[in-house]
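Example complex used in Figure S2.
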Amino acid sequence: MIAEFGLVALWLAGALALLQLVAGAVGLSKGGEALSGLVRPVAAAQGVLALVSFATLVALFARTDLSVKLVAMNSHSAKPMIYKIAGAWGNHEGSMLLWVMVMGLAGAFVAMVERRLPERTMLATLAGQAFVSLGFYAFLLLSSNPFERLVTPPPEGNGLNPLLQDMGLAFHPPTLYFGYVGLSVAFSFAIGALVTREVGPAFARAMRPWVLGAWIFLTIGITAGSYWAYYELGWGGWWFWDPVENASLMPWLAATALLHSASVLASRDALRAWTVMLGVVAFSMSMVGTFLVRSGILTSVHAFAVDPERGSFILALLAINIGGALTLFALRAGTVTEGKRFAPISREGALVFNNVMLSAILGIILFGTLYPLVTEAFDTRVSVGPPYFNPVSAVFFVPMLLVLAVGPLLRWRRDRLDRVGKVVAIPALLALGVAAFLIGRGVSLLPYVGMALAAGLAVASVLPLRERNLRRTPLAVWGMVAAHLGVAVALFGMASDSAFKVERLVALRAGEATQVGPWKVMLKSVRPVAGPNWTAMEADMFASYEGGIVTEIRPQARSFWAPLQQTTESALVTRWNGQLYAVIGEEAPGSPGDGRWQLRLWWKPFVTLIWYGGLLIAFGGLLALIGRVASDLRRFAARGKIACRRERQGR
Amino acid sequence: MPTVIKPKHQRLVLLVIALAVLIAAGLLAAWALRNQASYFYVPSEIATAPPEVTRAVRLGGMVEKGSLRTDADGVTIHFVVGDGKARVPVRFAGIAPSLFVEGSGVVAEGRMAPDGTFVADNLLAKHDENYVPRELQDMTEHQKREIVAETTDTR
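Predicted assembly (806 residues):
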C-alpha cells in the first residue's frame, strides 16, 4: 500500500504542475486574470505532494520492502540503516524523484515568500517553473517509475554498489541537486522577466539569493565529491577531469558568472541581457550535467540508467527547455532596454572581463567533455584528460585571477589604474617574490604560476577591507573577501600537491620499512578482517614524521559480496602541512609465500588546503547570502511599518 | 579614452569582445583537442600504425594467458595484450586492479616506449560485475563472451 500511496502522490503532484502551468499562462493573458490567484497555492500544494512521494520512497527503503522493484534492485536487508536510507537516492529513479521533490519545494517556497516582483512576472516565473517540473514528472511517471512492484518479491535484494556505501553518498548527490534546482529557480526568474520584459534590479535582487544558495550547494558538492574521489578511489588524485566531475563543474562556472553579473544588475542596473542569458546558460549546464550523468552515455559509478529510452527522454527535455529558452531570449533580447553605462576600467569592467573568462573556461570544458561523445559517433574512440584541460583552461584562468585580485579594489562606473596601483603593488611584489624563490626548484610551469598567483591573491583578496570600519562592513563584503581568499587557498593546495608530492611504490615484508618524503613507514603485519557485508586484507602500519610521534594506520583492500566488488580504503594521516596517503594492494604476485605486500604511499604537502579553500569559498557565499537576506528582511519590515503608519494616518 | 560612449555602442562593443574571446576559446579548444586527446588503440592498430612515442593513448585488448610476470621489486609487472591479430608487450608499475587477471580484458592508459613496449600509467579492468570497459564493448561477440565468462567468474 505504501508504494501505491507514493505513486498517487506523485501523479497528483504532476497534475498540479500542469494546472500551475495552465493557470499561470491563462492568468497572463487578457481576460484570464481570474485564474491568477490559483497559481501560488497550487505551487505550494505541488511541493508538499512531491515531498510526500519522496518520503514514501525513503520509508520503503528503510523497511527494505522487496516487493518494490527499485528496492529489490538496489538495497539489501543486511545494509546499515543509514545506507538503506541513502540508497533511496543512490539510483536513477530515486535520484530523479529527489530532483522533482527539491524542485517542487523550491517552487512552493518562491510562491509563498517572493512578493517583490510585479505579479505578472511572478505568474510567468511560476508557470516557467511548472513547465520545467512537468518535464521531469513526465520522465518519472512514464519511463522511470520508482514505485513499480514485482509480482514475486525476491528473497533478498541486489545490494548497493559498495563504492557508494559511504557517508559521501548520503550527502553528495542531494547537495548537488539542491544546487541544480536552485539554478532552475534562477532560470524560471529569467524566463518570467523575459516574458514580461521586466529585466531590472528588482529581478536581479529576487534571483540573487537563489543563485547564491545554488552556488553554495554546488561548491560544497564539488568539494565533497573531490574529497570523496580522493580517499575512496585510492589513486591519490583529487580531480580526474572525469565527465561526471565536469558535469558538476560546468554549472558551477556558469553560476559563478551569473552570481557576479546579477550583483552588477542589482546594484548598478547594468548587464541586463547578459544576466538573463547567464540564467539560461546556468540551468542548461545543470541539464547537460544531468543528461551526461544519468543517461548512461558515460560508464561510471554515476551512470545508473543504461536504458537508451531514458537517455533520449532527458535529451528531449534538454532540447525543449534550452531551445525554448534560447528562442524566447532571441525574440525578447532586442526589447530589453539598455542598462547603465560604465568605463572599461571600473568594477563593472572587471566583472565583465571575468564573466567572459568564466564563460570561456566553461566552453573549453564543455568541448572537452562532449568531444569523445562526438568522435564516437564517427567510430573513433578517444579520451580527453588533464593534458588538454589543465593548460587550455589555464590560458583563461590565469588572466581571470589577475583581474580577480584587482577588480574588488576598483570603483563602480569609472576608475583609474594608477589610483589602485600602490595598493596592488604589495600582493604583486609578494607574487614575484614567491616566483623568484621557486626558480630552479624543478617546479613545472602550471604549479609554478599557481603558487605565485595564490600568494598574491591571498593578500589581494583581503585588501578590500582596508580603510573600512570592520564592524560596519556589510556581511556581503566579508563574504566576497572569504570566497576570494578561498580561491587563493585552494589554488595553493592544488599547486603545492602537484609540485611537491612524493610517491613511493614498494613491496614490503612484515617488519620492513620505507621512506616517503619526510615520513618513515613500517609495515607491521597484514591480516584479514571482516565487516557487516565485506571482508578485507588490512595492513597494520606505523608512520612517523621526521622521526617524531608514531601513528598507526590501517589501509584496507575490501571485497564486498553484495554486489561482488573490490574497493580500496586508503589510510590518511593529516598534519597541518599535508597528508600521508597509504594504499595496500595485493600480495606481490609471482612470489607466493614470499609474504611481500604491495604498498603505495604518497606524501602530499598542503593538499588539504584544496578542500579547506573550497569550504571557505562556500562559507563566503553563505555570509553573502545571510547578509542579503537579512537586508531584504529589514527592508521588508521597514516597508511594513511605513504601510502601517500610513493606515493609521487614515490614508 | 572617450568619455562619452553611446549605450548602444557600449553593448555592441561588449558583445563583439565577448564573442571574439569565446570564438578564440573554441578555436583553442579544437586545436588542443586534436593534439591532446588520447586515442584508443587495439594491438593490431599499434602493429600497423604505432602512435608517436610522446603521445598519450589507450590500449585495449586481452591479457594473454601465461604472459604475466613480476619484476624482483614486486610492483612492476609485464604482460602481453593481444587481439588475436597482434601482440603488444606492456609494462606497468603500480597496484593492478584486483580483477585484473590473465585472459581477461584490460584497457591500459599510457604511451609507447621507443623499444616497442607500451608503458602503462594506469590499468582499467572491470571493477564490478556490470562494468565492462567502454572500449571493449565493440570487440567481436566471441571476444566479448570470453571476457564476460572470464571476468564474471566469482573466484
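Residues 2 and 258 of chain A are 42 Å apart (CA to CA). The longest helix of chain A spans residues 609-648.
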